[in-house]
Amino acid sequence: MSGGIGGFVRDFVESHGLAAVFGLMAAESCGIPFPSEVIMPVAGAVAAGALVGGSHLGLVPAIIAGAAGNLVGSLIAWVLAARFGEPLLLGPGRYVGISRSHIELADRFFRRRGLLAVFLGRMLPVIRTYISFPAGLARVPLVPFATLTFAGALPWCTALAVAGYEVGANYDRVSGPIEKAAIAIAVLVAAGVIAWIVRGRRAGGAAD
Fold first, then answer.
1. Which of helix, strand or coil describes residue 68?
2. Which end of the chain is more exposed for a tag (fewer CB within 10 A), N or C?
3. Could you give the CA distance from residue 155 to residue 159 in angstroms, rounded to a whole number?
4. Which of 163, 166, 174, 146 minimizes the C-alpha distance to 40?
5. For 150-203, what is each residue's pLDDT tens digit?
6. Which neighbouring-strand residues pair with 52?
């Protein structure tokens, strides 16, 4: 925790408290790589004993701040994708292999199981960071999207923050393995997402 992203997150949370938790979680939900698997356990560990601004960072407020940040960041990503996503994807995106078939695939996915995907996606590494973009492209209704985003983010933030809180003062010893495990899970999920996209692209090409 003395260096790397874990050290940065801890210093930031210790210095700025709930605002830091909120801001980092909002950034993650906008696609900026600040992993919640690090942010929320750090917030829980700080709540267990570190002082922020002369008073303890409460565990429950930290959880709420994390879930609220997730919601705000997700709403920003949804709006960006809904208003500007398709021109961006079909414009510069074509140079990295994105085609209309990807957008149509996302639209079909959310038409069939969009609300369930929004809820479950909040508890899956990597997917939780980017799911708002296809949801915005598919124009998933905003109120249900926001409700299920917060409902899915809350247990995720709670589990991670409580884990950090329970570890408490020993967080420095286990932060390395926690980050490595989070990275390993994220790589596996990312590989699955890539395979899903490639499959959809091939299916779209065959249809053409």
1. helix
2. C
3. 6
4. 163
5. 999 999 999 999 888 887 756 555 555 555 555 565 566 556 656 665 665 565
6. 55
Work out the percent of the chain whose per-residue pLDDT is above 70: 61
Residues listed for the chain: 208
Domain locations in the chain? 4-207
pTM: 0.71
* C-alpha 148: how far from chain center: 14
DSSP structural state of residue 56: E
Residues 6+ apart with CB under 8 A from 124: 189
Q: Which residues contact 128 (CB under 8 A, 6 or more apart)?
A: 28, 29, 36, 70, 121, 122, 152, 153, 156
Q: Supply φ then ψ for residue 139, to 5 degrees.
A: 55, 45
Q: Give 124's DSSP letter.
A: S
Please list, in sequence order, all residues whose beta carbon lies within 8 angstroms of the beta carbon of residue 90, skipping any fewer than 6 positions away.
98, 99, 100, 103
CA angle 6, 32, 138 (to 5 degrees): 140
Q: What is the pLDDT of residues 74-130, one digit of tens each?
A: 998 888 888 887 776 566 546 545 556 655 655 666 667 768 888 887 887 767 777
